[in-house]
Amino acid sequence: MYDFDKITDRKHSYSKKWRKYAGKDILPLWVADMDFPAPPAVLAALQGTLDHGVFGYSMHQEEVRRDIVDYLQREYNWGVAEKDIIWLPGLVCGLNLASQALSDVDQAIITATPIYPPFMSAPLNAGRELLKTPLLEVNGDWRWNWDDLEKQLAAARIKPKLLLLCNPHNPVGKMWTREELEQLLEFAIRHDLVVCSDEIHCDLILDESRKHIPFASISKEAAERSITLMAPSKTYNVAGLNCSFAIATNPLIRNKFAKIMRGLFGDLNSFGVAACQAAYNECDDWKKELLIYLRANRDLIVQILTPYTDLQLSIPEATYLLWIDGRKLCTKYKIDNLQQFFEQAGVGLSDGAEFDLPGFVRLNFGTSRVTLTQALERMVTALDQLTAS
Ligand SMILES: Cc1ncc(COP(=O)(O)O)c(C=O)c1O
Questions:
Q1: How many angstroms does the Cα of residue 234 sit away from the middle of ligand 1?
Q2: Are 19 and 10 in contact (CB under 8 A)?
Q3: Of the candidates 245, 265, 282, which is a domain's last residue?
Q4: Among the three residues 253, 282, 311, which one is the final residue of a domain in this structure?
Q5: Can you list the pairs that 309-316 forms with residues at least 24 positions away whose Cβ atoms lie under 8 Å?
Q6: How far apart are CA 27 and CA 256, in angstroms?
């Protein structure tokens, strides 16, 4: 019913993703937005806002709190109250606010790598010590390395207070299971940590048999010591509209977070709020079809690249991002920088080094089948040339 094959020209727009390679024949599969227009219901809501023609101060966001509460109940069986929601212009902003509000200057912040770069910059921006624990990769599955973390904590000069969780995890596409989240909670309780869970990719679940589990929803204790960051931006492709939110049921955490924000943020943009409301109320069918399309894109990449055994793919359970280990390839063919190697072949991927894991690249498959196929052909040609040389 929805046409995800239809190509919208973004080359001549202000798209960050496409502008990076303006004038060059490089297909951009890097920054995490999709090449699809937003759902028709979102476009209609934006058009309705525009048609009204008056853009004065708005209180629309107060009404949308109810829509978010209903959505979270419907999608995740997670009960929150309208008052638990704090509006934000973006999740990176939320990570930075959490780092400042939920730890003190003499306390460290934990995160697990490889990770979306702001998880590492937010603690540093706040002047906090960052404690990084590398995730363990076991047969394509990524896990927390509790032994490593316990050892680091035992040796740490500065004790941590906050843990930044990415659920699902960008860039490896991992959906944390209930057991893993429970283990994380147990760890957080033992070390008296607050958990800030970034769940921006929560709706992009590719495995049909599974459901996203918000960390805060697993128990009362998890809710008590956490804050969750969410947005319609990834799923409904409205990242440029800057409408996001935090949810904290614990008033102590919520108030600390809100206090840091006081006076620094104005109301949300009316267009972002309208898009958020339409996305959460009217786009379930669109989302279902999007997921079918993304799943097929993921499967196409796996089918095309699996024969190249010098590349190791982490097949994502969630997100439209695919994490590729090219270390074997780099060693074998003396490639210094895998991102540049593929860029020279006409495909713009994200460099693993930015996620704290050089030798890897991240491929964004939130694009049309035609663009993806063309990008894969270019990658395969470059790989074949290596083996032929
Ligand atoms: C895990 C994660 N958090 C946050 C963001 C960015 O959020 P925002 O654009 O709302 O700042 C991204 C974008 O890729 C992301 O992957």
A1: 8
A2: no
A3: 282
A4: 282
A5: 310/383, 311/383, 312/140, 313/140, 314/137, 314/140, 314/142, 314/172, 314/173, 314/174, 315/140, 315/173, 316/172, 316/173, 316/174, 316/206
A6: 43
Give residue 42's pLDDT: 98
Q: Is 231 in the pocket of ligand 1 (CB under 6 A)?
A: yes
The domain in which residue 339 lies consists of 16-31+284-384
| 72 Cβ below 6 A of ligand 1 | no
Q: Model confidence over 246-280: pLDDT tens digits?
A: 999 999 999 999 999 999 998 999 999 999 999 99
- Distance from Cα 154 to the centre of ligand 1, integer Å: 31
How far apart (Å, rounded) are the C-alpha atoms in residues 9 and 115?
30
pLDDT at residue 140 in the model: 85
CA 319 to ligand 1: nearest atom: 16
Tokens encoding 321? 């991002």
The Å distance, Cα 88 to ligand 1 centre, comes to 12
Nearest CA to ligand 1 atom 7: 91
Cα-to-centroid distance, 113 and ligand 1 (Å) = 16
Predicted pLDDT at 389: 74
pLDDT tens-place string over residues 152-192: 999 999 999 999 999 999 999 999 999 999 999 999 999 99
Among protein residues, the one with the nearest Cα to ligand 1's atom 10 is 90
Positions in the chain short of pLDDT 50: none
The answer on 224 and 361 residing in a single domain is no
pLDDT of residue 388: 84
| 115 in the same domain as 261 | yes
